[in-house]
């Protein structure tokens, strides 16, 4: 009951005229930028981080929450109308959604995606209200060794799950950890990796890293590969659902929500696995007309995965807010946003800044409602946004990123670092290295170092202190499992293939 009382207080903060305005700005910007091809929620939040530097924290996070959910909504529009997923979690939506659009049912595909996102987001946010205090109560007992083990779990899980290979994921993580070392060592006072540049003594601002690797790097990569001509967009009218569409959609919405929320809360779980599982489950459960339409544009293949996608977004906020543990690329950028304001997500955030946390959670309900109202009537407008010429779009992104970063400290060094990181982000995409582990390594690396030193100091230098807590042992075991599972799966797959070839 205490959670619901705090949530009511949160609504009191979120429903003020100023915060409602920021929520509306957030969902509108999130949808607008999320609609554009190649620009997902992570890049959207990263691009707008510098803009909110002077905004009060509560208002800023209400806007970020709106951008996060809006970006998830917008990604479905690109997938359905262009067959161009903005991020990997929208790939499944494109399978059936684009086929529906080409059959003249773009309006129905967009409607079931929008309403399913609303249903899933609302239910999952309710689950967040229930789950968050329970996780906080557990996390209060964490010691330094537990936090170090938790950071290792985040490193290994994200590196192995968000990459096509463990080696590439760990290589990206190593780059992020190296960037996190730049600056003055907090315990010894020694300068590390500053190359004699005074502006680097305080380290590289996390906002510059996020904008450089995500926004500039993505813009350079996508601009280097997409044609300069406007894309062919499938015509769309007002988004609506008929009675039969409602009947076929509501069960996939609920099943997708049930799959998406727990996977979003797992380290490295993300939205890719639940969206695929939702698509597979709906295909297996399809009967009659739905079974015949699968592969040709079945509405269930859009409703379920989109619900799973948005439910996982709310699930991602559970470990982020309660443990300071990002489980996706967008969550890593949100963590950067907290650090921009000198805040560290975790149990103390709920104790020291309850108004901020609960206003942000309450704003998720408000933002969901705003998004539904915006997306259903404005679907034709979002379709027109897709006709923006690509050179103007990505040149504008790079310029906007530069202006935002320069406004932070007003130094040319920040711009040089931004474009160097942008080139690094481009090279990482070019050679198949995931960006999320680098950002998470840069953000969590200093925290992991501090907690490791504290644990060793408490244990008088004995490494056994790192496994002295049952919680730390469990977390380290999970980290080892996350690291070794892809390797074991690959080895077993090769053995099976070799055995099959021998039998043939």
From TrEMBL:
It comes from the Bacteria. Residues 20-440 form the DUF112 domain. InterPro entries: DUF112_TM. The chain crosses the membrane at residues 20-39, 45-69, 109-141, 147-167, 200-223, 320-343, 355-374, 394-421, 472-492. Keywords: Membrane, Transmembrane, Transmembrane helix. The keyword Glycoprotein does not apply. This is Putative tricarboxylic transport membrane protein. It comes from Nonomuraea pusilla. The lineage of its organism: Bacteria, Bacillati, Actinomycetota, Actinomycetes, Streptosporangiales.
């Amino acid at each position: 009951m205490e959670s619901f009382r705090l949530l009511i207080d949160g609504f009191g903060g979120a429903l003020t005229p100023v915060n409602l305005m920021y929520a509306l700005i957030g969902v509108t910007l999130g949808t607008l930028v999320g609609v554009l091809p190649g620009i997902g929620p992570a890049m959207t939040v990263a691009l707008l981080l510098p803009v909110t530097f002077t905004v009060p924290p509560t208002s800023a996070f209400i806007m970020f929450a709106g951008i996060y959910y809006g970006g998830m909504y917008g990604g479905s529009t690109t997938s359905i109308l262009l067959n161009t997923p903005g991020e990997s979690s929208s790939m499944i939506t494109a399978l059936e959604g684009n086929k529906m659009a080409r059959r003249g049912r773009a309006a129905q595909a967009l409607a079931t995606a929008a309403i399913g996102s609303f249903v899933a987001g609302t239910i999952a946010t309710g689950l967040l209200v229930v789950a968050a205090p329970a996780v906080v109560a557990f996390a209060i007992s964490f010691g330094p060794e537990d936090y170090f083990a938790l950071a290792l779990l985040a490193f290994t899980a994200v590196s192995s799950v968000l990459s096509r290979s463990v080696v590439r994921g760990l290589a990206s993580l190593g780059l992020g950890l190296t960037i996190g070392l730049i600056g003055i060592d907090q315990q010894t006072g020694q300068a590390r990796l500053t190359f004699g540049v005074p502006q680097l003594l305080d380290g590289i601002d996390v906002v510059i890293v996020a904008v450089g690797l995500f926004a500039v790097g993505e813009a350079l990569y996508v601009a280097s590969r997409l044609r300069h001509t406007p894309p062919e967009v499938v015509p769309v009218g007002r988004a609506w659902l008929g009675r039969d569409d409602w009947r076929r959609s509501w069960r996939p919405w609920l099943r997708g929500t049930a799959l998406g929320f727990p996977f979003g809360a797992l380290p490295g779980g993300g939205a890719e696995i639940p969206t695929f599982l939702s698509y597979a489950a709906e295909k297996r459960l399809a009967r009659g007309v739905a079974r015949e339409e699968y592969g040709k544009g079945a509405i269930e293949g859009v409703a379920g995965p989109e619900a799973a996608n948005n439910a996982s977004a709310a699930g991602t906020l559970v470990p982020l807010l309660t443990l300071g543990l990002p489980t996706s690329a967008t969550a890593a950028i949100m963590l950067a946003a907290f650090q921009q304001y000198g805040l560290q997500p975790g149990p103390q955030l709920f104790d020291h800044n309850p108004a901020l946390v609960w206003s942000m959670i309450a704003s998720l309900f408000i933002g969901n409602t705003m998004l539904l109202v915006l997306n259903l009537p404005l679907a034709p407008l979002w379709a027109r946004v897709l006709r923006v010429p690509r050179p103007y779009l990505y040149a504008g992104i790079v310029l906007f990123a530069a202006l935002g970063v320069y406004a932070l400290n007003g130094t040319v060094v920040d711009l040089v670092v931004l474009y160097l990181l942008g080139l690094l982000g481009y090279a990482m995409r070019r050679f198949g290295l995931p960006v999320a582990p680098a950002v998470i390594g840069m953000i969590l690396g200093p925290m992991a170092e501090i907690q490791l030193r504290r644990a060793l100091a408490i244990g008088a230098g004995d490494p056994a202190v790192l496994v002295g807590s049952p919680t730390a042992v469990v977390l380290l075991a999970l980290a080892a499992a996350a690291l070794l599972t892809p390797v074991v799966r690959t080895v077993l797959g090769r053995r099976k293939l070799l055995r099959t070839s021998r039998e043939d």
